[in-house]
Amino acid sequence: MASGAVRPAFAYTVVYVKDVVKSAAFYSSAFGYTVRRLDESHKWAELESGATTIAFTPLHQRETDAITGHVQLPDSPAERGPVEICFDYPDVDAAYRRAVDNGAVPVSAPEQKNWGQKVGYVRDIDGIIVRMGSHVRE
């Protein structure tokens, strides 16, 4: 890093969704997060997720579409978007069951990987892939 350069802090992951209120409620029930903020316009919600905020905003809105372009969704359920959300849990099996019991679509049940992590996959209510895994300590 160049001398005098500022080291940024990773602050937000913004997830573009069909319905901000439904997505915030879904992530709260399925993955165990608390909704920290729900804007009264229902165009922004944040989860209490530690140092990095997970936020939701509508798929299409004037503020972003005109500046950065339209969100492109996969053409079919067999495809996935270019981003995967990953959560670590001490008990991946219990977390996976909770997610599915609360509306997540099962993709792959948790299994032990040869690199030491247990991993399962679901889709959220917008079709976004969510990886649920154990934390691997080096």
TrEMBL record:
PANTHER family given in the database record: GLYOXALASE FAMILY PROTEIN, VOC DOMAIN-CONTAINING PROTEIN
InterPro entries: Glyas_Bleomycin-R_OHBP_Dase, Glyas_Fos-R_dOase_dom, GlyoxalaseI/FosfomycinResist, VOC_core
A matching Pfam family: Glyoxalase
Protein name stated in the entry: VOC domain-containing protein
Domain VOC residue range list: 9-135
Signal peptide: none
SUPFAM superfamilies hit by this protein: Glyoxalase/Bleomycin resistance protein/Dihydroxybiphenyl dioxygenase
